[in-house]
Amino acid sequence: MRKKRRDFQKLGLRLTNWISEPSNQIVLVLFVFLLGMVPLIWWFERAGGNELFHTIGDALWWLIVTIPTVGYGDIVPRTVFGRLLGVVVIVFGVAFYAILSGQIVSFLIDKKLKERRGLAVVRVKNHILILGVNGYLEKFLTVLPEFMGERAMSVVLVNDMSEDEFLEVKNKFPHLMIRFVFGDYTKEAVLKRAGVENAIHAFILADNFHHRSLDDADDRTIMATLSLKALQPELPVSAEVIKIEKASAIKRAGVENVIFNGAFSPTLLSAALVSPAVPLFFQDLVANYESPRLTIVGIEPQFVGKPFREYFLAMREKHKLLVVGLYRTEKELSIEDMLSGNDAIDEFIRSKLRGEDTEETKYHVNINPPDDYILSSEDTYAFVIR
């Protein structure tokens, strides 16, 4: 009962605000005035014997087609007073139609501008929230579709970008349905405009936009998480963390997936869409500093000329190591290789380049080679998981 009363109060307040606008007052007065013409035209035409105005509904139909000057001609006034009222309806009807059309166009334009500036309420469902901005935002948006699969999702950015900055980001990712909400993402009112109640996942980036210091990024993450959980307790939240000592506090605030800020954070954050176990796997694989799981070992000479499958099985059986890739080094031609002669020109070039390291080494990583790949002497190391 109280909820209904509050809804009626909100409706009454909105109606009062609408009527307080001068242009709306003009529209309302014209509408009431034109509507008042219906019984008058019906009475005059019926009294004058015009059978076309059989019911008051016929008079209303005549008014509707006359206001925009359509005039189908199926119902027309025949009395003098009826035609005079018709002239009045046409004059004031055109004014009513013009003002109303202008208001509709103005509303649509204003709504579009608000959306571009991030001031409108986002009305989407099953979308992803990305709170904050840092240098990895575009990389994150690049990686994110890989973990979405075939699902078409809307992405809502919540930050304090300008309109031009948002459009620059949006135009780089035309395949994503990106929307924008401007404001402080730690505030519940801003998150409500972003449709947090209907979101399926929230990502909080370590925000350093507009030269904002990263020192308080973790504190902003905690505040944003508390606001998110207050509005939607079941919403999964993943967040970047700057300081290791803040990780436990961020988890207590409600963040399920804590990713330390770095070059791999966009991938690890996006992987949380599939399962929280995915970023945990990557972190254990590459960020376990006490006992590294991913390392490299030298390839023993006896495997040169042998297929990769044989090397893979031998490493698995003898050393309990899982080979996931090969590391090859290739040396470019040195200046001595190109200057094989002993003439004066070659000697001059050698004298100019003497003491400089002109030999360049290229590195190639071959992840998960095919079973029949033949190891060569240039395959010097293997990537293995302990």
Which descriptors apply to this entry?
Rossmann fold, six-stranded parallel beta sheet, elongated, 48% helix, single chain, 3 domains, Alpha-Beta Plaits, four-stranded antiparallel beta sheet, 16% strand, alpha/beta, 10 strands, 14 helices, Helix Hairpins, 386 residues
Protein described:
With 386 residues, this protein is α/β, with parallel strands linked by helices. 48% of the residues lie in helices and 16% in strands. It is built from 14 helices and 10 strands. The two termini are 64 Å apart. The mean pLDDT is 83.
Do you know the CATH architecture of the largest domain?
Answer: 3-Layer(aba) Sandwich
Cα distance spanning the termini:
64 Å
CA gyration radius, whole angstroms: 36 Å
Characterize the biggest β-sheet.
6 strands, parallel
Morphology: elongated
Number of strands: 10
Broad CATH class of the largest domain: Alpha Beta
Point out poorly predicted stretches: none
Domains (count)? 3
Question: In percent terms, what proportion of residues is strand?
Answer: 15-25%
Class derived from helix and strand content: alpha/beta
Order of helices and strands: HHHHEHEHEHEHEHEHHEHEHHEE
Average pLDDT, all residues? 83
CATH superfamily of the largest domain: NAD(P)-binding Rossmann-like Domain
How many distinct helices? Answer: 14
Main sheet strand line-up: 3-2-1-4-5-6
The name of the CATH topology of the largest domain is Rossmann fold
The helix content, as a percent range, equals: 40-55%
